[in-house]
Amino acid sequence: MKLRPCIDIHNGKVKQIVGSSLVDDGDMARENYVSSKDAAFYSNMYRELGLSGGHVILLNAVDSPYYEMTKQQAIGALMANPGLLQVGGGITADNAQEFIEAGASHVIVTSYVFKNGKISYTNLKKLLKAVGKERIVLDLSCKAKNDKDVHVQGASYYIVTDRWQKMSDVRLCNETLEELSNYCDEFLVHAADVEGKQNGIEEKVVKVLADWGKIPITYAGGVGKISDIEKLKKLGKGKLDVTIGSALDIFGGHLVMNDVIAACD
């Protein structure tokens, strides 16, 4: 299991937020940490630590007055270390190549692919044509809700879009993972209900991902202790990588980065 580093940018600043608190109206979010450093600083730090395959996420909507500030921060991180990081947030077939040319190894896509609650194969194919399967990460971040399928016991997890604010009709399951793996190189999955809360991982999500586990998958959400990493490694059957944000000391948390790197090895 590898630690995949992250740089989340909101209103032009590197931040760690409670994921479920993000609201486009007014560009509001409950903040765990706001950095005085720019995104390029963290990009360079990750390179020096030997970490790769992480992601830069733009947390403002494209029509936000803060979007251009946020985008410039992201571009700075990508250009500082070309090929080191992936990028997501407002990615479409029209702008994906711009981010690749700026230094992104992959583009991370959710809302463009899941339109009106459904998978848009039209947009998926446009994205494939624009950058190629090997450059695409599909973000299958999800939240729990009671399933309408009488054959499914209890809550299931459904993919959420538009910065985790809109629930889709697409369930996180083997069939979905199998189908969408034909269109991407990796999956990124934030368990949005626990994202930024440091109260433990979403075990059911981890099990769904590990039971399939055929291409690289990065899990994010809820890690607050070294024991959470150990649990993720066990439940993930060694098939999942992890992203940790608010709990890390570099973002004001109590987990020492080098201890986390060692725990993931």
UniProtKB/TrEMBL annotation:
Pfam families the record matches: His_biosynth
KW Cell wall biogenesis/degradation (keyword) present: no
Pathway(s) the chain acts in: Amino-acid biosynthesis
Recorded GO MF terms: 1-(5-phosphoribosyl)-5-[(5-phosphoribosylamino)methylideneamino]imidazole-4-carboxamide isomerase activity
Xref: SUPFAM superfamilies: Ribulose-phoshate binding barrel
Keywords, alphabetical: Amino-acid biosynthesis, Histidine biosynthesis, Isomerase
GO biological process, one term: L-histidine biosynthetic process
A GO CC annotation given for this chain: cytoplasm
Gene3D superfamilies: Aldolase class I (3.20.20.70)
Database matches in NCBIfam families: hisA_euk (TIGR02129)
Record family assignment: Belongs to the HisA/HisF family.
Protein name per the record: 1-(5-phosphoribosyl)-5-[(5-phosphoribosylamino)methylideneamino] imidazole-4-carboxamide isomerase
Record organism: Butyrivibrio proteoclasticus
Highest classification ranks of the organism: Bacteria, Bacillati, Bacillota, Clostridia, Lachnospirales
